[in-house]
Write a structure and sequence with these properties.
The protein is α/β, with parallel strands linked by helices. It has helices spanning 2-18, 23-44, 59-65, 67-79, 107-116, 155-163, 174-178; strands at residues 52-58, 83-90, 105-106, 122-125, 130-131, 146-149, 169-170. The strands form two sheets. The chain has a five-stranded parallel beta sheet with strand order 2-1-4-6-7, with helices on both faces. Helix 2 (23-44) packs parallel to helix 4 (67-79).
Length: 182
């Protein structure tokens, strides 16, 4: 028994020391990356060709997934005819109203980016939905670009945000749409 445990331990240590990634992790990452591209394509399909967009993503997500993955995502947007004007790498900053435990990003970040790029027709948030909408005066929401969100949106949340006019489009899990939440 002790020999078996020792052999298993040596195999695990050898795996981590070799620097190779187990096959199941590679396949999971491949699926996640394909899903990121698919969500970008779906969101792009809701806009007219030639639309000028700004893309939001969390800086640590860009580092984690790597340039190659985002080249595929941005390529999918461009293939649909979108003009990417800027990519904003958002940094979690509690001094600027970020809640490090909340998914998404503060709505104030959307407002800041929208004001910095007034020519943008849409802002595509690859980092989930904004939070803190209720704390901001939204009287000029119609003058802001459309907000499209990939990931992290529940069906009820997406439907509510769309009805209020704060969200143009969102990708939601297939189980949400199959169960009739949207």
């Amino acid at each position: 028994m002790a020999t078996l445990v020792l052999l298993l331990l040596l195999a695990v240590i050898g795996l981590f020391r070799s620097g190779s990634t187990p096959t199941f992790v590679k396949e999971d990452l491949k699926t996640i990356h394909q899903d990121m591209v698919r969500q970008a394509e779906q969101l792009a399909g809701t806009l007219d060709s030639g639309s000028r967009v700004v893309v939001l993503e969390l800086d640590y997500a860009i580092k984690a997934h790597g340039k190659r993955v985002y080249d595929l995502v941005f390529g999918a947007l461009k293939a649909r005819g979108l003009d990417i004007r800027h990519v904003e790498a958002l940094t979690v900053d509690t001094a600027r109203g970020w809640d490090p435990y909340a998914p998404g990003f503060p709505y104030a970040e959307f407002v800041r980016v929208a004001e910095a790029y007034p020519e943008a027709d849409a802002v595509i948030a690859l980092c989930g939905p904004p939070y803190g909408l209720e704390r901001l005066a939204l009287s000029s929401v119609s003058t802001r670009p459309k907000l499209l969100v990939a990931g992290g949106v529940s069906g009820a949340s997406a439907a509510s945000l769309c009805k209020r006019g704060w969200l143009h489009a969102a990708t939601v899990p297939r189980t949400v749409t199959e169960n009739g939440a949207l």
